[in-house]
Amino acid sequence: MEGLSVADANLVMYLHPSKSRNVSQSILRELGSLLFKFNETFDGVLLAYDVNILDKQAKILSGVHPYFGLRLKANLLLFSPKPDMLLEGKVVKLSQESIHVIVLGFSSAIITAENIRGEFKYRTKDTEELFASKSHKRHVIKVGTMIRFLVKSFDEEILHIIGSLISAHTGSIRWLDRHLEEDSEFDRSSMKSRDREWLGDKTVDEGATPMSYDNHIKMSKKRRITE
Amino acid sequence: MGLELPKYPEMEEDQVFNFTDSEIVSHVKQALASVLSGDNNSYNQLVGVMHHSKHLAPDEVALLETTLKALAGAVSSIDITYHDSLLSAIFCMSMWNYGPHVADALAELIVSLAISNGKYLDLCLGMLVSNFTPPPYFLDKLKMPHGLERKGQVLSRVHAAFKKIADYVPLAPLRLLTIVLQGMPTIYHKDRAIVIYVENMLKLESGEIGELVGSTILMAVVDRLIELDVEIGWDAILQDDFSKGIFEMELEDVDDIEESAEPDVGEFRLSRKSLAGNSIAELLDNLLVLTFEHLESCEREGRLAKVFETLLQSFQVTVLSAYKSKFAQFVMFYACALDPENCGMRFATMLADLFVQDSQPQPTRMSAVSYLASYLSRAKFLAASSISSMLKRLVDWCLEYCEAHDGDINPNAHRVFYSGCQAIMYVLCFRMKVFVDVPRLKSELLIPLEQVLKHKLNPLKVCLPSVVEEFLRQAKAASLFTVCKTFIFDGLLESELSRAFGGLERLDTFFPFDPCLLKKCDSFIRPMFVFWSMVKPTYDDAFDDDDDDDGSSDDLVQDFVNENEDIMNDEFGKSFDEQGVDMDDFDYALKKMSITPKATSNYKFGGRFQEPARMPSRIRPSTSPESL
């Protein structure tokens, strides 16, 4: 999945003198307050951090309140989706008009009907709503499916993504990865899933890539909530 | 599914068509899209339907419902700039004006809008929050059955909508929190909107997104309680009559003093009377009752311990630091009463910890020990062992302090010490009987205490005279220790020395858990509260006193009297054994309780019941159903 990056940052954090009693707690609290918010300096949403104090000595600023500046070195996990990036998320709601997705457990994305390629038809099967591909019977998108989609725009304040399923590389991840090599030379009639069984080993198990980030996110989310 | 629309725009009135849902949706989409090309007709008709809200005929209701549903399906076509009149019409709608079906459709539309685009999220959440309170004309109807039904309808949909939005937009609760806190009505709002708003806030706390927003909301509620509390001036409550000791300053009448035909004899501080017309007090009363009921439901759901942690933090940050909070602290009292072993002890321990910490500022430490003293004295639900362990901590600290400081009497320099001593004496005034009967406690507690009291720092001279007097009187009667000097205070409440240690804030006369003067709150607190009249001082073991003031002997607890009149006629003069008392043994405690120890009052007492026709003003029928 694109959009995730780990950055090394040299930071200077200015703390109010009242925080001098417990500096490490204050640092964690300050960084914690930045979590899940878009930060212009980092150009991304801070998801997780690991921080070290570089220098035990801090410079005191002159002024009404003598803030002191700490030099820190931090490892930051950032999320910065840009247009035309491919993201992965889980479908939580599906209707004829739109598909609603949640990315990394915290960011919501919407794909409206006009951004879904014509290949997908809205169907109701046994009271379950889904989008099924006209050309590939097994390519189905319903609530709970992990899908890969293209970013059209990203609202930095609400962390809301507008996505699209127009490109051929988008759709249900399980199906896409199974048929990865065939995507470019797709021929409707000659394809039989039976012949492609050997590609099945390359299936992304739905857990691995997004889930490990999910766990990471859940941890930092927990940390945020307890703070 | 087909739908019948007799008056849909652009149709001739006589024609009735059946449309499918998707046809209606595409019609609406067209209307929306046409605005971009300049044709506003159908769009304006749509907006018109939204604005029409009062006195709707059934077909208009159906039209509104259909339009809302269609809009929900067409949210992707709504543009924030071109369709701003439609959006503002939607966001101004109040679910309180409509029946369940329209409310459902409106909720659905709001949810769809919120999740469709980040730009609408805050506006949608704001609209839902504004539906916490009904429109002004509806506020009076809230008490009636129709009003209550509508309230249940609207609030359930609003809170369900929050949950749905949170399901699809995980960060929504965070934004909701900001919006809820910003939208809190101020205490100066003439309409009592704040009560229903706080009700909604508490509902959020116990609801499905409660885990994410709960603690911040609770702290905001306590903040608001304190804001109201400080608006009630102390002068509205206290009278200047300090001639009687504080132990007579008890307000125990359940009923309004205003109902009395005879003028008040002047014994009681007319606190409740002067508060009666006070609208802020009424508001605070209502909010406190809401909070109590919420705590009860937390306890039923088994969440009280977690909620209590938040309350504890909020208490330290807000209540403790407020200047002499009057009633807001009863929230803690009630929470402790609901769970004496955990929460009750946790509260006491926290206060004691604050007191002994040198790093805390002086006023905080003095405040904390005042709270502790008042709490240990007044909490009926605390076990004697808990009280004694707390007292022991205080006594040990005071003893250590004495040994470390070799100075003479100096109220200013040793303020914390004197407030600690006063606290110990105050608690013992209420609970001395307990310690007298247990020899181990006597040695553990009273011997070090004697050392403290006889030290050069001379707390007996500095602490509040009325407390010292009562304490010495009881100590003498129980033969606890001998005091070399006699202290004659002439029943003074306070002295110069006590004022000195109390400081500007007068923390020497701060007894935070004195009887609650707010009527509705009081009815919650009463069963777990120790009134001074319920205490059997050690000197009353002796035969009756002859200097029996008319006024002061009448410190009966009204509702106990009325609820248990048959019990009152016997069991007089039995010793009050506090050790066995807890909330469950309420009736048992009543049986054991001595209402007044004086033989002369016994007679009066019996006399009263034998001659109901001549009920004096002090006794009035209580408001409880079981009474006369």
Question: Any overview of this molecule?
Answer:
The complex is a heterodimer of chains A (227) and B (628). Helix content of chain A is 15%, strand content 40%. Chain A has helices spanning 23-32, 173-178, 208-226, and strands at residues 4-15, 38-39, 44-53, 59-60, 68-79, 86-94, 98-103, 107-112, 120-125, 128-133, 140-142, 146-155, 160-164, 171-172. In chain A, strands 1, 2, 3, 4 and 5 form a 5-stranded antiparallel beta sheet that branches. A 5-stranded mixed barrel of chain A has the order 6-7-8-13-12. A 3-stranded antiparallel beta sheet of chain A has the order 9-10-11, with no helix packed on it. Chain B is mostly helical and 628 residues long. Chain B folds into 3 domains: 21-183; 184-249 and 269-339, no CATH class; 360-537, no CATH class. Chain B contains 27 helices and 2 strands. In chain B, helix 16 (362-378) packs parallel to helix 18 (415-437) and helix 17 (384-404) crosses helix 18. The longest helix of chain B has 24 residues, at 145-168. Chain B is elongated and about 100 Å long. Chain B starts with a strand and ends in an 18-residue tail after the last helix. The relative contact order of chain B is 0.06. The model of chain B is unreliable at 11-15, 240-244, 253-270 and 543-628 (pLDDT under 50). Chains A and B meet through strand 7 and strand 8 of A and helix 6 of B.
Mean of the pLDDT scores of chain B?
Answer: 77
Give the class-level CATH name of the largest domain in chain A.
Answer: Mainly Beta
- Enumerate the spans of chain A where pLDDT stays under 50 for 5 or more consecutive residues: 187-227
Q: From the 3D coordinates, which CATH architecture of the largest domain in chain A would you assign?
A: Beta Barrel
Oligomer: heterodimer
Reading the helices and strands of chain B in chain order gives: EEHHHHHHHHHHHHHHHHHHHHHHHHHHH
Largest interface: A-B, 24 and 21 residues
First and last CA, distance of chain A: 29 Å
Number of strands of chain A: 14
Lateral strand order in the biggest sheet of chain B: 1-2
Number of helices of chain B: 27
CATH-defined superfamily of the largest domain in chain A = Nucleic acid-binding proteins
Write down the overall mean pLDDT of chain A. 81
Label the structural class of chain B: mainly alpha
